[in-house]
Amino acid sequence: MTKPYSNETGELIDQEVREWIDKAYKRTLELIEKHREGVEHIAQKLLEKEILHQDDLVAILGERPFKSTELSNYDRFKLGFQREEDISETEAVEENMEEEGSQVPPVGGAPAPALA
After folding, report:
1. Residue 42 CB partners (closer than 8 Å, separation 6+)
2. 3-state secondary structure of 92
């Protein structure tokens, strides 16, 4: 397999990537030092619970300092489970009503028309 660029260009790319990694590493260390108390609190909580959820992190670190105008992937993920739970609850209610001989109300809450 041949590279679509010269060895010199490859060396420049490697050097640039090393610089990015070094900057990211230094920034990470700075953030850990700046927020050392929170990091230690999270570490202690992990020793207690092993798994932390978003609510646990918010309790430890507080709300995010910024609010996004869009839903995060995690928020979409949680909403998907809530919708599945809502659907499961609706199906369970409908099954229960059918077993009891009750009419299942249509969407919107209006009573179902009587069967002739």
Report:
1. 52, 57, 60, 61
2. helix
C-alpha to C-alpha distance for 58 and 52, rounded to whole angstroms: 10
Q: pTM, whole model, 2 decimals?
A: 0.49
User: What span, in angstroms and rounded, lies between the C-alpha atoms of 59 and 55?
Assistant: 6
Q: For residues 98 and 91, is the Cβ–Cβ distance under 8 A?
A: no
Reference 60, options 84, 81, 44, 82; nearest CA is: 44
Instruction: Report CA torsion sign: 17, 23, 25, 31.
Output: negative
Q: Which amino acid is at 66?
A: F
Q: What is the pLDDT along the chain (116 residues), one digit of tens a residue?
A: 788 889 999 999 999 999 999 999 999 999 999 999 999 999 999 999 999 998 899 999 888 888 888 888 888 888 887 665 665 655 655 565 566 665 544 444 445 555 54
